[in-house]
Structure formats: structure tokens, C-alpha cells
Design a protein that fits this description.
Elements lengths: L1 E9 L8 H5 L1 E10 L2 E7 L8 E10 L1 E6 L8 H8 L4 H6 L4 H9 L3 H17 L2 E7 L6 H14 L6 E9 L9 H18 L5 E6 L6 H13 L3 E6 L7 H8 L3 E4 L5 H10 L2 E4 L1 H6 L7 H7 L3 E3 L13 H12 L3 H7 L2 H7 L19 E4 L6 H4 L6 E6 L2 E5 L7
The structure holds N-(iminomethyl)-L-glutamic acid and fe (iii) ion.
């Protein structure tokens, strides 16, 4: 047996009564691991003898990043420089920059290049404690490239760094040079989706539903086809305008609605009623210098709140999920406890990792040995400190993904 002794363990497996109860902090506690499972979770003083013992400040469930665009070629640093000089994201996109420029760079990259670039990004995520990640396609926008991206994403799931769930995002933008919206939406539904389904490459279908992207009716058509094909659904909604995406996601029984800067109260009520998780993306609102969504409104409406990196070259070039949690506290008004749950158990729900065979964002005896460790004496430091915290351990299915020596800062 391997034993990890901690100053504090946050199981994130407590009752739903309050975020504090849900965190379920245990001081001077140990986690015992045999194979890929947790076999002991309790006081260190009663812990069974182990072959190997590690000491860590704070142990939590391995973090779950519920929203990434991890597989892409190229960089958008020049575009970023222009945007910070005052040019507008959507105007640049209309002129062939933005997502389309990453699509060109991605199409021009080989599978091996895309895989190596994405592997480096996945290692970076692992260094921040992430052991499960949702990965979208969406920078191919033609049948062959979308399939290539999803195959790379599936391959990333075999590295032992993190569990991977994939989302097909053929409806991320109109492809460069495409003038006929109807034709492209039909291509997504009639050509791309059936191939994705036939090869079993996606667990979920996502659509970018917004002004300048896909309309509500286009989103409805694509997600209905996805549902009919047996896939889960989710969408980017309300990043710039409220098109009614929240109500549509509720109607479809979708897993999550992501971004959410512009969603009205009726939309929030619909999401809450249908159990659609709200995924907050601080990297994107920061980079676009937008007003963040208010956690208060979501909490009041009863919408479960998760947090993702949105790792992508245009609006969120970061793998630092703990930083995103700390920004959700500062910018959007999450409590620290909500932010920790937002990158563990609520994120697992948003991304569709199921407890039985995969990451749950919770620690419990009999559950998967997916956990992370940080050199802090109190998990609250995850919301308090920002930008400095790196995991001193990340373990997936009982194997160490990241081992580092980190000074205890907080
Ligand atoms: O989640 N909102 C749409 N898609 C990405 C940005 C993609 C890009 O600019 O490359 C997002 O923010
Ligand atoms: Fe995104």
C-alpha cells in the first residue's frame, strides 16, 4: 500500500447542505492506495502500515478541467498584441483572424506535431493538479481535420497524465472562406457528426452559440442531431449576447452551459431546473476585458457552478486551473469553498466524468485514486493565493503523474 499523509484532506465528498459541508475537511488525515483505488481515508493515527509514505500539505481530489481547446497549432500572440492595442476580437475574427487563423495553422500541422504540442499543454495542466480534462475539437472545421483533432485528444488519454473526455465542436466558427452558413451547418450534421459517431471519437457535442458564431436555431439543429445519435450536449452561451441558449440547453437536458457573461434570469432558472451546470471561464473574460458573470445570480437561481481554464490560443492561453479558481473568487464572487468544488466535483459533473469508471472529483474509499497535493496548510489558500500554486503531486488511477518538490508558501 501507498499512503499519503496530509495536514488536511478535502474529500469534496461531503453532503450537499453547504459548500463547507461538501468540502469535508479532515485534519491530520491519510489516504491509502492499492492499485488504482483508495482503500483508506481517515485519521493518520489509525492509518494502516504502508510500504511507502508521502507527506503533503493538503490533499484534494485530482482537479477536473471541464473546458479546454487543447489541440491546436500555431500561436496568436500577434493578434493578442493588436487586441491589447485596442483592436476588437470580433472585428479581427470577421477579417479572417481569430479562430480562423488557428484553423489555418492547425490544418497545416501534422498529427504528431499536434500531439506533441497538446501533450506539453496536458503536462502543464497536470503540474497544476489536473487529473481529468475535457478536450474539444473545433480548430479543424472540415471532416478530416475535426477527426484528426479528436483522435489526438483520445490519444492524449492514453498517456497516464489525465483522464480525457472529448467534445466535438465542429460548430466553433464558419471555416475560412465559407460563405454559405446553411451548407456548413448541414456539413456538421450530415458529414462530420456521423463520422465522429462511427469512430466513437466524441463523448459530447458542443456548439459556440453566440452573435458572430452560431444562431439558436443552428445550435438546436446540431445539438438535437447529437442527442439523437446518443451523445451528451453542451454549448458556449452568452459570451457576448444572450440568444436564449440557456433555455435551449435546459430543454435538451445538456450537461453544461459555458461562458455565461450574458444570461438573463429566465435562462438561469431554466438551467437550474434542468440541472445544467454553469461553467465559468475567468481566463476568457480577463483576456477579453469583459465584465464577469456574477456568482450571486447563479447561486440565487440554484445553478451549480464549475470553473475551467478554457485553454485556447485566442482568449485563454493558460493551463493554470487553480489561478482560474482564485480569479472566480475575486472577479465573479465565488466563495473559496465554491471555487474548490468548481474545479473538483462540480467540474466532474459538467464534463460528464462518471464516478464508477472514471474521475468523480471526490475522494472516497473504493473510489478511483485520482488526487492532487499542494504545499499549503489550508485548502483556502487555493482561493487566496493566486498564480503561485503548483501541485507537488498529481496522481491518476494510483500512478504518479507529477512529482515535484515545492516549498510550502501558505
Ligand atoms: O471558448 N468562445 C469560443 N471559443 C473560444 C475562443 C476561441 C479562440 O479565440 O480561438 C473560447 O473562448
Ligand atoms: Fe471555449
Amino acid at each position: 500500500m501507498l499512503r499519503i499523509d496530509a495536514l488536511v484532506v478535502a474529500t469534496c465528498d461531503g453532503s450537499d447542505d453547504s459548500p463547507t459541508a461538501a468540502l469535508d475537511l479532515r485534519e491530520r488525515a491519510s489516504v491509502g492506495i492499492e492499485g488504482d483505488r483508495i482503500v483508506y481515508l481517515g485519521p493518520t493515527e489509525n492509518a494502516p502500515v504502508a510500504d511507502e509514505v508521502r507527506e503533503v500539505g493538503c490533499v484534494l481530489p485530482g482537479f477536473v478541467d471541464p473546458h479546454t481547446h487543447l489541440v491546436f497549432g500555431g500561436s496568436r500572440v500577434d493578434e493578442f498584441r493588436r487586441r491589447m492595442g485596442g483592436e476588437d476580437y470580433r472585428t479581427l475574427a470577421k477579417e479572417g483572424g481569430g479562430i480562423a487563423s488557428t484553423v489555418r495553422a492547425t490544418r497545416a500541422s501534422s498529427d504528431d506535431t499536434l500531439f506533441e504540442l497538446a501533450r506539453a499543454r496536458l503536462s502543464a495542466l497536470s503540474g497544476f493538479g489536473v487529473t481529468a480534462v475535457e478536450i474539444k475539437s473545433g480548430y479543424g472545421l472540415d471532416v478530416e481535420t475535426e477527426l484528426r483533432l479528436l483522435r489526438v485528444a483520445r490519444r492524449l488519454g492514453t498517456l497516464g497524465l489525465a483522464r480525457v473526455t472529448t467534445s466535438f465542436l465542429g460548430a466553433h466558427a464558419l471555416p475560412p472562406g465559407e460563405a454559405d452558413r446553411g451548407r456548413y451547418v448541414r456539413e456538421v450534421i450530415e458529414a462530420q457528426l456521423p463520422r465522429v459517431v462511427a469512430e466513437g471519437l466524441a463523448d459530447t457535442v458542443d456548439v459556440y452559440c453566440d452573435e458572430g458564431a452560431f444562431s439558436l436555431e443552428e445550435t438546436r439543429a446540431i445539438l438535437s442531431a447529437a442527442k439523437a445519435a446518443g451523445l451528451a450536449t453542451r454549448a458556449h452561451i452568452g459570451q457576448f449576447a444572450d440568444l436564449g441558449g440557456a433555455e435551449l440547453l435546459a430543454e435538451l437536458g445538456a450537461r453544461s452551459g459555458d461562458h455565461l457573461e450574458q444570461v438573463d434570469d429566465a435562462g438561469l432558472a431554466a438551467m437550474a431546473k434542468a440541472g445544467v451546470v454553469g461553467v465559468f471561464l475567468p481566463g476568457a473574460w480577463r483576456t477579453l476585458r469583459q465584465t464577469p458573470p456574477e456568482a450571486d445570480r447563479f447561486r440565487g437561481a440554484g445553478v451549480a457552478m464549475a470553473i475551467g481554464t478554457d485553454l485556447n490560443p485566442g482568449t485563454s492561453p493558460t493551463a493554470n486551473l487553480p489561478l482560474m479558481a482564485a480569479l472566480a473568487v475575486r472577479d465573479a464572487g465565488f466563495t473559496i469553498e465554491e471555487a474548490i468544488l468548481g474545479i473538483t466535483r462540480v467540474a466532474a459533473q459538467a464534463a460528464g466524468f462518471t464516478e464508477k469508471e472514471s474521475a468523480s472529483g471526490r475522494l472516497r474509499v473504493g473510489g478511483p485514486a485520482d488526487l492532487c497535493g499542494f504545499e499549503i496548510s489550508d485548502p483556502a489558500a487555493l482561493g487566496y493565493a493566486f498564480g503561485d500554486l503548483r501541485a507537488s503531486l498529481a496522481m491518476m488511477a494510483g500512478s504518479f503523474a507529477t512529482v515535484a518538490s515545492i516549498p510550502r508558501l501558505w
